[in-house]
Amino acid sequence: MATKTERREVAALKVHQWIKAWDKIVFSASEHRKKPDPYFYLFSLPAVELRNLCGIARRQASDLTPRAADLGIQREHDPERSDEIWRFVEYGYPWSTLSEAKRKTAEFNDLRKPGWLPTAIVITILKPSDTRGQRTVAAEDIISVRDEGVSCRLSLPYRQWSKEWRPSEVAPLEVIDGQHRLWAFEKDVDTDLLPCLPSFISRFCSGSAPECGGLQTRSV
Is cis: bond before 94, omega within 30 of 0? Predict the structure, then answer.
């Protein structure tokens, strides 16, 4: 367990977003729609490191679960979709859509190109009080944020990341949107691959993946 002074720190930008119209919205913490903070953080981490830090809240498959009571925000993971995303990152489109037999030949090597992945993986940073199935993030795994005005620093739960690191209990980060992109990096990848990570603090979520604590996220 790393002490506070030994922890790895990551620089982030604090992005303020709030309009007056949102003051008219009725928020309700009891219905998992508490008022969100008027800002989020923007930073990046190596994809393989992020995988170790993240958990996913799955939606309940049963129709008996009321929408307000279902905190799961992500659909069931589709491994084939993540595999296709990884092939895109590796050699771009249209090479990623070729059959396995065609990819194994040299005939289509001229189709290879870098597969940039600029779209963000949206996450939430869990607080010690957040519960997931009556479990919480272990004290030594909590990710803290030190505000420095426009910028800030995130303190991660280790001095130096290793592939063997795992959270003791609940993962300190939770995916709001982008699970298929994140799970595309189950294989060993270059540590220079750094996804963009808009992140929110302790967001209670219900409903579809883009909805979070009364806040909706959307790529446009």
Answer: yes
Sign of the dihedral through C-alpha 147, 129, 19, 56: positive
CA dihedral 163→166→171→174, nearest 10 degrees, is 10
Record the tokens describing residue 112, joined without a space.
């290879």
State the pTM of this model: 0.75
pLDDT by 10s per residue, the chain, length 220: 565 558 999 999 999 999 999 999 998 877 777 888 898 999 988 888 888 899 866 544 444 333 344 444 445 778 888 888 888 888 899 989 999 999 999 999 999 998 887 788 889 999 998 888 889 999 999 999 999 888 899 999 999 999 899 999 999 999 888 888 888 876 655 556 677 777 777 554 433 344 444 455 554 4
Distance CA 67, CA 59 (A): 10
How crowded is the C-beta side of 214, counted as CA atoms within 13 Å? 19
**Domain residue ranges of the chain, discontinuous segments joined by +:** 4-73+118-216
